[in-house]
Amino acid sequence: MRDLPHFARLSLCRFGIQRRYVALQPVLQLFWGGKVDYLQGFAMSTNRIKASSQLANVRYEIRGPLARRAAELEKAGHEIIKLNIGNPGAFGFRAPETMRQAMIENLRESDAYCHQKGIFPAREAVVMQQQNRGVMNTTAEDVFMGNGVSELILFSLRALLNVGDEVLVPSPDYPLWTAATHLNDGKAVHYPCRRELNWLPDLDAMAKLITPRTRAMVIISPNNPTGAVYPREVLQAMVDLAEKHELVIFTDEIYDQITYEGAEYTPVATLVKHTLCGTFSGLSKVYRSCGFRVGWLSFSGEKDQAREYMLGLDTIMSLRLCSNVVGQWAVQTALGGYQSIYDLTKPGGRLFQTRATVLDGVKRSRYLHVLPPRGAIYAFPGVDLDKLPNFDDEKFAIDLLERKHVLVAPGSSFNVPYRNHFRITLLPDEKTMADVFERMEDLLDEYAAVA
Ligand SMILES: Cc1ncc(COP(=O)(O)O)c(C=O)c1O
Known about the structure:
alpha/beta; 17 helices; globular; disordered N terminus
């Protein structure tokens, strides 16, 4: 099927030709010879096994059709520059060697399932990191290790939500938060983080979105996709709002130590007293270990009111027995001592320099604008609609992929109502990024010529 010309595949799917396949067989045989056997299998398959209707609102475009098309192009021999995912290992970044050593040393201790919350040394290391940051009421009992933050996002919402419960999620968002809310029977209510406000939340708009069904507020700082790092006063105002309405705070701080040019990261847990605060972080980004699949969720704040919820979460964690044990052995080593990420984010460091190349590329462009990312590993540029009034982010992403062999994530994948932004990761080297900006400008020039 994959080997068929694109239009043939499309028409087969779109017009339900599978069922009529038998009649078409001689024609197909004439044109595509051996491929017809494969088609036959396809024709036999009906749509009998449906996906859950829970998936109707679930989207994760970052790994969706565009990424699949990129894979097809690669198979056809094209080299694609993939800027759609923040996966450091795919760009030559390595986890610190001592973390690898810690896993090797403890491999013999890793055969068995561990406790559903994770191994004690890893949980205790998270407790100590929180204490060093001024969060004093978290114990190892309040820490849950997971197969990445992703798994913990799914489980923490599963344990909380009833049908129709609402969760305040930023827009733009990291789309897993929206998807996980819908998957778990809830409704994601997006609070706007506006470009005019340096991508910070519009607090007035946010307050108006709270209803009796609102159960939780999601905060992502440093932010994916915008790179915003929320100042302490903004976070305090969000915390005040959550406390006033007794909302659980879920703060996704997976980029906690990735900031640029002195931007100050504030751990939200240090501000929360009167409601439950769940802080998420992990090894994937700061420690360049996405593939280890290690994340954690630590609770602080008003825990006494949340015993039932935390027990519910514990039950869900025990259903999946435990998370990857080997990777957890790297946590203590990772969190203690010198933090090598700062070598990458300071002037001269790889992330800093590529970020500078992005800012330079945008400055040179006749069409683009961007707010310099203050943290995380992405930039979220926009296109000037005065210059290109018909610009559409999804069409741009497709054209850029097909014609210039660069893969970006369209802004509309991040649950925003506008269609003139896109996200790129800062992970490639400077030279590659400069090349990307030339290719993008070529395409935008082509658009301008026919506008
Ligand atoms: C904001 C945010 N949260 C969570 C994740 C997922 O992290 P993990 O690899 O720990 O599942 C990502 C990954 O890009 C992210 O950007």
